[in-house]
Write a structure and sequence with these properties.
Layout (H helix, E strand, L loop, with lengths): L6 H12 L4 E5 L7 H11 L5 E5 L5 H7 L5 E4 L6 H6 L1 H22 L3 E7 L22 H19 L4 E6 L2 E2 L8 H11 L3 E4 L5 E2 L2 E2 H13 L3 E5 L5 E2 H12 L5 E4 L14 H6 L8 H14 L2
Parallel strand pairs: 1-2, 3-4, 4-5, 5-10, 6-9, 7-12
Antiparallel strand pairs: 8-11
Length: 306
């Protein structure tokens, strides 16, 4: 599990541990967001006897090669996350997401693993206007982050074709839930609403997102272990405007926070909505938690952990 100390990786790892799998987590505890949060995720995983932590980077090719020996499955979640971060420092995003990802992929090939499950992103679609977004639509990323995710997807597909390495790339659509990154909109909106602070929306609030609750993501990963090949959209299958999102959080928290608007940020997609029919058919994936149910769960989680 690369990136196993992070938000998504730690949730997937925890479910694998519960099911009795031995899990090795490789993470470098990058300070893109607080390493303290990642340490707390690892503390949860460390309760299981079948968990092992390796501190290090996917850019350390020798380390990755050593860890890959006797591994059956690789869940590749390690990445330099964030559209904004990729615009500020595109070189780091490329190094981690493309070169680091390549190190993982090539080590998997050399060690003959059964399957690599890659965490990709809806950012690969960019500003395409066709909704819902299908896997066979053109990919036109508008940020270095989106480009890096698409590039590694292509590497996975090439390795599957040439080297017969079984790979799946799951295009996540805006994941949220307990232990999520603090720089993401739902986290910021919820914290500000509970504190009674204003909620800032970039743009006019009419951008839409397909938000996906973390339990749905975990379910998709476990299904991808056993079935499916190639690329799949993993979303909640519904869309909500950013303004409606903020209003829902204000309502759920009983807050008196006001909503203010600022200029749109470069690299932000206008709309995302996953067509999940391929994942339903081939992975038997059905999102069990809607965005509204997920928001309620998340607000309860944050409120109980203040």
């Amino acid at each position: 599990m690369t990136g196993g100390a992070g938000f998504i990786g730690s949730h997937v790892a925890e479910e694998l541990l519960k099911r009795g799998h031995e899990v090795i987590c490789l993470d470098n505890f990058d300070d893109y967001y607080s390493p303290v949060l990642k340490e707390s995720n690892v503390a949860i995983l460390s309760r299981y006897d079948n968990f092992r932590l390796a501190r290090g980077s996917i850019l350390d090719k020798d380390l990755v090669d050593r860890l890959m020996v006797d591994i059956d499955y690789v869940f590749h979640n390690a990445a330099q996350a964030g559209v904004d971060a990729s615009i500020r420092n595109p070189q780091k995003t490329n190094e981690v997401n493309v070169i680091g990802g390549f190190n993982v992929l090539d080590a998997a090939r050399k060690c003959g693993i059964k399957k690599l499950i890659n965490a990709s992103s809806s950012s690969v679609y960019g500003q395409i206007t066709d909704l819902p977004q299908r896997e066979d639509l053109p990919t036109r990323p508008i940020s270095p982050y989106g480009v890096s995710k698409l590039c590694f997807e292509d590497y996975c597909e090439v390795y599957r074709s040439i080297y017969d390495l079984d790979t799946v790339s799951l295009r996540y659509f805006t994941v949220f839930g307990p232990r999520m990154r603090p720089d993401l909109a739902i986290s910021i909106f919820t914290s500000n609403a509970i504190a009674g602070k204003e909620i800032k929306i970039f743009g006019d609030g009419n951008k839409t997102r397909d938000f996906t609750y973390i339990e749905n993501i975990v379910d998709a990963n476990l299904r991808a272990m056993e079935r499916g090949h190639g690329v799949y959209n993993i979303g909640g299958g519904d869309e909500i405007t950013i303004r409606m999102l903020a209003e829902s959080i204000i309502c759920l928290t009983g807050s008196k926070s006001s909503i203010v608007f600022d200029e749109s940020r470069p690299g932000d997609m206008e709309h995302t909505l996953a067509d999940i029919s391929k994942a339903k058919q081939e992975l038997e994936y059905i999102p069990g938690t809607s965005v509204r149910e997920g928001l309620k769960k998340y607000v309860e989680y944050v409120s109980s952990n203040i």
